[in-house]
Amino acid sequence: MVQKYESPVRIYKYPFELVMAAYERRFPTCPQMPIVLDCEVIDDAETDNGAKRETKRRCKLAVDAPYLFKKIIGIDVAYFIQTNFLDMKARTLNIEAINETFSSRIEIFEKCRYYAHPENPDWTCFDQVATLDIKNFFGFEHSMEKMGMKQYSQTTQKGKEIIEFFINELKKEGISHVDRWKEDESAEPAATSTTTVSISSEKPPLTRDNSILDADYIATYLGQLSPLQESKLVQFRKKIEETNHERKVPDYQTLLRFLRARDFSIDKAATMLQESLQWREEHRIDDILSEYKTPVVVEKYFPGGWHHHDNDGRPLYILRLGNMDVKGLLKSVGEDELLKLTLHICEEGLKLMKEATKLFGKPIWNWCLLVDLDGLSMRHLWRPGVKALLRIIETVEKNYPETMGRVLIVRAPRVFPVLWTIVSAFIDENTRSKFLFFGGPDCLHIEDGLEHYIPTEKIPSFLGGSCITMIHEGGLIPKHLYKSESVEEHNGAPHSHEHHGLYKSVDLKPGQMFELIIKNTDPKSVLTWDIDVLKNDILFALYRTDKDLEQSFNDSFSSVFDNAGMQEGVHYTRLEEKVRCKPKEGVQGSHEMATAGTYVLQWMCPPSCDGPAQLMYFHEILSSANYKGSMTSLQSGFSSNSLQSR
User: Fold this and answer.
1) Which residue of 62, 82, 391, 643 has the fewest CB atoms within a 10 Å radius of its CB?
2) DSSP-derived 3-state class of residue 170
């Protein structure tokens, strides 16, 4: 059986020559690797005027195995042959090691490389790969495989510690720099003393044109990064510079956010960033902070705004979604304007994050969102509103990745699981993991309450805190503020409805009714509806029966139940009480279809009306498969408030 082990690339933030000086000090033994008992040089030769050196060693290793196992195989030590190929001109060291002990039964081959970083000449890379081929080992093949894996993992982890240890030892001796090999110098690199403590400290502070990241800059503006992540960031910057000759290259914080969004895949992050830069250019996003004019409706009725910082220093944005008139906003400013408002908020967030970084003296590269859902109902699930929300989420996810540090959902009502199920599928998995939910009315006096995330003195008064906010409470938007091209301003003509592709128009004479028959075969699915009454009053009700009914589009002044000779309470049941809807009112609702059967949506123009009525309607069935686990609270939650008139 052949097993292959491979370690990730390791980065040393020191030049190759200094790393080599540290590497030589680990022979013949070093305290960090007690398993190595001795290393004897059996051959050592230089070529190419000292630029190349080949060294062969016979290394004696203690067998790290249980006592009984060592007794059975009859050895306490094992020997390996290690060959080093050093090229100071090319700045590479290739190492090959193969076992001498039990070579007829086991073949262990290890290959390591030290080499100058391809993008940063003052850094050194290291990678390692090994194969274990167990041919026959006294019936202990599986045990040997496990021990081999364990030994490989231990030596890999120790390797970096050893190099760092000996570099520090060199510094203590006053050696922090080793000259690069030159053609006219001797083969031995000259070790010199210098007052320089580290390579990075010789560099000037980071500027936009620098390709090397200063350690202080990283600590102040980027936060903790692994050496590999730092290297990826440097490479990513250079790739963007090479492919964006006419565009301004984003700062390192932005580059890092896109890298994180694509798991530090440079190619994937580059594609995502290039598309975003193109989008910003086409939509003039760089000018939005200076050019955007907030619509009057938004100033008066949009319940959102910035509010100090959370406990980690992130800028805090509060959105009182439960008080938002989604339908009114869409009809008064339109979907594009709502998207532009969101983008303006995101750009403000980027600016506030930079200010917070300076204010708190630590990296702040995302912000916190608090969403108050008190008042959320089915009217917020109006399909065009949800469609606009999903468009906004998609745009933000593509162009502002990794800007959301935490999302606090407070006072979430029973209706919330439906909205969450709809939108969560469009939110990045990493972003979803940052959501925290507070379901009850009190989000303070509970374990792990809001004060764990927001300074106590900054908790808004509407959540039980003492801080007064300047955020508007929202509320219903008056109809006279709707756009002139909205449906109400065109005498209700079906073709003029702003969402005519989704909605259907119905005209009813006094006493006439229209019934929509829905045959449900999916228990626990959810029936949702949205109605716009354009002219005269309309009576609306919902029924259910076990009988199989057929849809009829004839002008009818009697119900399908009457035509079939059915009696209410015996053959069919009324699920929603009749509601009288006035002209220019919108009605949204939902009902969990707990069982299979025939459901009937019924609209009727009262006989007492002085003229015909007109309405626009839309309905949708939400599959139970998509809402599993969310439906248990809907029946009681919706039956009392599923119809919201405005």
Assistant:
1) 62
2) helix
DSSP code at position 620: E
Distance of alpha carbon 564 from alpha carbon 546, whole angstroms = 13
What's residue 292's pLDDT? Answer: 93
Q: Comparing C-alpha atoms, which of 470, 500, 506, 467 is closest to residue 485?
A: 500
DSSP code of residue 460: B
Q: Which residues have C-beta within 8 Å of that of residue 182, sequence separation ≥ 6?
A: none
Q: What is the pLDDT of residues 224-278, one digit of tens each?
A: 888 788 888 988 998 998 887 777 889 999 999 999 999 999 999 999 999 999 9
> 453 phi and psi, to 5 degrees?
-120, -25
Q: What is the mean pLDDT of the chain?
A: 79
Tokens representing 375? 């008042």
Q: How far is the C-alpha of 461 from the C-alpha of 164, rounded, in Å?
A: 53
Cβ density class 116-145: b for 16+ within 10 Å, e for less? bbebbebbbbbebebebebeeeeebeeebb
Q: Report DSSP letters for 404-448, one per residue.
A: EEEEEEES--TTHHHHHHHHHTTS-HHHHTTEEEE-SS-SSSSTT
Q: What is the dihedral of CA 13, 15, 17, 20, to 10 degrees?
A: 10
Q: Could you tell me the two tokens for 331?
A: 């009809």
**Model confidence pTM above 0.85:** no
For every residue of 204-252, DSSP letters joined together read PSP-TT-SS--HHHIIIII----HHHHHHHHHHHHHHHHH-SSSPPPPH
Which tokens sit at 297? 């409706």
Tokens describing residue 260? 């994180």
209-226 pLDDT, tens digit per residue, is 444 567 777 888 888 888
Q: Is the dihedral of CA 207, 208, 214, 215 positive or negative?
A: positive
In DSSP terms, 588 is beta-bridged to 530, 644
For the cut 70, the answer to whether the pLDDT of residue 99 exceeds it is: yes
Q: Which helix H or strand E contains 598, and what residues bound it?
A: strand 597-604
Rounded CA gap, 175 and 168, in Å? 9
Q: How far is CA 17 from the centre of its chain?
A: 40
| Range ranked top by mean pLDDT from 62-71, 213-222, 337-346, 530-539 | 337-346
Rounded Cα distance between 219 and 360, Å, is 13
Dihedral (CA of 338, 344, 350, 354) sign: negative
Lookup: tokens for 609:
């009306």
Q: What is the DSSP-derived secondary structure letter of residue 181?
A: P
Tokens at 123, concatenated: 């850094």
**Which of 94, 87, 84 is CA-nearest to residue 58?**
84
SS3 369: strand
Angle, CA 361 vertex, CA 360 and CA 367 arms, to 5°: 55
Tell me the sheet residues that pair with 589: 529
pLDDT of 3 higher than 60: yes
Q: What is the pLDDT of residue 151?
A: 52
How far is C-alpha 51 from the geometric centre of its chain's CA atoms?
49
Mean pLDDT confidence for 291-307:
94
Whether the ω angle into residue 121 lies within 30 degrees of 0, i.e. cis, is no
Q: How many angstroms separate the CA atoms of 194 and 563, rounded?
A: 102
The yes-or-no verdict on residue 485 having pLDDT over 50 is no
Residue 454 clears pLDDT 90, i.e. is over it: yes
Contacts of 575 (CB under 8 A, 6+ apart): 542, 543, 544, 591, 599
Say if residue 191's pLDDT is above 50.
no
Helix (H) or strand (E) holding 129: strand 124-134
